[in-house]
């Protein structure tokens, strides 16, 4: 199983990745190599699926990939890949995507596309919008490979009962291989393994689950590919958040000819439909492989299940690294205030790209405290990054000569001056600007448009303020365990948070304690609890009403905020879509 990191739209580069890993798999003696969902095109393709030219390019790329594998001496290794195809021979129907695109699977062998099928269950929840982009497949391929019947399915087909899972059980497959592009969320790895174990027991067959790795816009794919046997016991597991060629030897049962109608299957032999899915059997090779000594399986240990903060941190690093790399940015820039948010965002960027590619601006105003400047300078020394200091008070004063601004308007002017300087530096030196706001600020509207919201990517956008502190403490503790200098000054972690836009300002002037606030926000945003439910949970009714009003009024700001790595089950962006113009006021 090749747990790899493709890029959406890079058909040539992704195909080259397949060839490279297939060569390694062949060298390791593999009898089958499989890659993630939509490997050839990258995932998710979103509305690229609706462009006929893109679908055609994908189909041609898969055919060319099969030929290239054979030309490079890899034609005898069956290679399974995900790609974008289209349903042939069926007229378009009302409500279906034009061109009938499909999220498809192909088995490549001896220079040609030997087997094809398409994803049957199309998810349309959370970040997924596949009813918009694809039409469902109606077949499950069962390939007799070295005397073993191997079924192939795509991602959601494993998550949903019935359909391909029921068809694989009825076909008595010895192994179900699933190609996945399953995004990271906190605590999702246990859910995946439990799912694979349950499906294996239901089918009485081993399950091989290959997942994508790397970042694509907001989504992070964490790998965590795994194999369980027919009893649901974990056989092998790949590492998380890294590319990996995962080679595992399996002892699988010989094919049951009775399940194929009493004789060896012929290619493209139709079977009986089960839950809307028709089994199509293919004879690849009926002779079993000669006995050989198996390699011991790899079981990558998981982190301490009581604390997944380290995994969240790694996800943020992957998100920043791949967003910058895949979009052609060699460096990033951000404003460093001495506070915890910019300190954590800077540290993530350094771990993602290296200190020589991280540029920070120190932009003190007349309200900036002495410790904020010194904390920022301390972080610069600890991490060895490039820093420039621009005092913004004279610039703000120049603006104020043209227009008198007071109160919040004057405070926001400071933030917008900082944003203008950051974007000027980006234009001048081609840095990707990182916004440093956290999820608590975005939820409550504590983000100045065209000020601290400027940027192309937002590393901690999906992190509650309380999680920001946890991540900073975890990163410093990791450094201490390794005998290194903690990257974040302790004062940046310990001091009360403040935007420092007026004298003596503190976040608690207008917001409750973050532990209380984040719990309330997570319940309202993450689980859609209403006022009555939140009050029954013990929150003060007046506070609930005030916070809900703040969240709902700030929707227009969130629409204009940069994308950032999704690490929660519901982020601001793909997961949560609410109208900006909205007069509904929750009462229950």
Automatic annotation (TrEMBL):
Residues 1-252 form the CN hydrolase domain. The keyword NAD applies. Deamido-NAD(+) binds at residues 412, 441, 557. The active site is at 37 (proton acceptor), 119 (for glutaminase activity), 155 (nucleophile). Keywords: ATP-binding, Ligase, NAD, Nucleotide-binding. ATP binds at residues 335-342, 436. L-glutamine binds at residues 125, 182, 188. It comes from the Bacteria. GO terms for molecular function: NAD+ synthase (glutamine-hydrolyzing) activity. Pathway: Cofactor biosynthesis; NAD(+) biosynthesis; NAD(+) from deamido-NAD(+) (L-Gln route): step 1/1. It catalyses: deamido-NAD(+) + L-glutamine + ATP + H2O = L-glutamate + AMP + diphosphate + NAD(+) + H(+). Its EC number is 6.3.5.1. InterPro entries: C-N_Hydrolase, C-N_Hydrolase_sf, Gln-dep_NAD_synthase, NAD/GMP_synthase, NAD_synthase, Rossmann-like_a/b/a_fold. Gene3D superfamilies: Carbon-nitrogen hydrolase (3.60.110.10), HUPs (3.40.50.620). CDD domains: GAT_Gln-NAD-synth (cd07570), NAD_synthase (cd00553). Belongs to the NAD synthetase family. This is Glutamine-dependent NAD(+) synthetase. It comes from Streptomonospora algeriensis. The gene is nadE.
């Amino acid at each position: 199983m090749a747990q790899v990191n493709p890029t959406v739209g890079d058909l040539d580069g992704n195909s080259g990745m397949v060839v490279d890993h297939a060569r390694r798999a062949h060298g390791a003696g593999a009898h089958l190599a499989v890659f993630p969902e939509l490997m050839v095109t990258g995932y998710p393709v979103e509305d690229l699926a609706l462009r006929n030219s893109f679908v055609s390019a994908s189909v041609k790329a898969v055919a060319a990939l099969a030929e290239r594998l054979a030309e490079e001496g890899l034609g005898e290794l069956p290679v399974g890949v995900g790609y974008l195809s289209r349903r042939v021979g069926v007229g378009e129907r009302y409500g279906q995507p034009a061109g009938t695109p499909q999220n498809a699977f192909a088995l490549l062998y001896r220079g040609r596309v030997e087997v094809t099928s398409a994803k049957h269950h199309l998810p349309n929840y959370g970040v997924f919008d596949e009813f918009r982009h694809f039409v469902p497949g109606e077949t499950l391929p069962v390939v007799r490979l070295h005397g073993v019947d191997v079924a192939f399915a795509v991602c959601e087909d494993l998550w949903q009962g019935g359909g391909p899972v029921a068809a694989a059980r009825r076909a008595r497959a010895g192994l179900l291989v699933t190609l996945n592009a399953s995004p990271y969320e906190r605590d999702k790895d246990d859910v995946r393994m439990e799912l694979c174990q349950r499906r294996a027991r239901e089918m009485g067959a081993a399950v091989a689950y290959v997942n994508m790795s790397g970042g694509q816009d907001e989504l992070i794919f964490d790998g965590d590919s795994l194999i369980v046997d027919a009893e649901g016991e974990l056989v092998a597991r790949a590492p998380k958040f890294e590319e990996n060629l995962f080679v595992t030897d399996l002892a699988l049962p010989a094919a049951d000819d009775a399940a194929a109608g009493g004789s060896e299957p012929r290619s493209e032999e139709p079977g009986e439909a089960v839950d809307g899915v028709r089994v199509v059997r293919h004879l690849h090779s009926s002779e079993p492989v000669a006995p050989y000594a198996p390699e011991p399986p790899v079981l990558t240990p998981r982190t301490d299940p009581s604390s997944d903060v380290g995994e969240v941190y790694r996800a943020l690093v992957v998100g920043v690294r791949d967003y910058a790399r895949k979009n052609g940015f060699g460096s990033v820039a951000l404003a460093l205030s001495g506070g915890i948010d910019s300190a954590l965002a800077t540290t993530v960027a350094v771990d993602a790209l290296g200190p020589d590619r991280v540029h920070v601006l120190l932009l003190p105003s007349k309200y900036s405290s002495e410790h904020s400047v010194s904390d920022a300078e301390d972080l610069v020394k600890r991490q060895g990054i490039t820093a420039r200091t621009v005092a913004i008070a004279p610039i703000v004063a120049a603006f104020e000569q043209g227009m008198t601004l007071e109160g919040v308007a004057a405070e926001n002017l400071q933030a917008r001056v900082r944003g203008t300087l950051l974007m000027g530096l980006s234009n001048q030196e081609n840095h990707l600007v990182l916004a440093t706001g956290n999820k608590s600020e975005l939820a409550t509207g504590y983000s100045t448009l065209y000020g601290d919201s400027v940027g192309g990517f937002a590393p901690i956008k999906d992190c509650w303020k309380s999680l920001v502190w946890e991540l900073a403490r975890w990163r410093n503790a990791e450094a201490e365990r390794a005998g290194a200098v903690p990257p974040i000054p302790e004062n940046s972690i310990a001091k009360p948070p403040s935007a420092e836009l007026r004298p003596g300002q503190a976040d608690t002037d207008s917001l409750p304690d973050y532990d209380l606030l984040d719990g309330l926000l997570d319940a309202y945003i993450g689980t859609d609890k209403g006022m009555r439910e939140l009050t029954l949970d013990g929150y003060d009714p007046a506070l609930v009403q005030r916070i809900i009003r703040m969240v709902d009024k700030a929707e227009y700001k969130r629409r204009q905020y940069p994308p950032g790595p999704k690490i929660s089950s519901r982020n601001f962006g793909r997961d949560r879509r609410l109208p900006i113009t909205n007069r509904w006021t929750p009462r229950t």
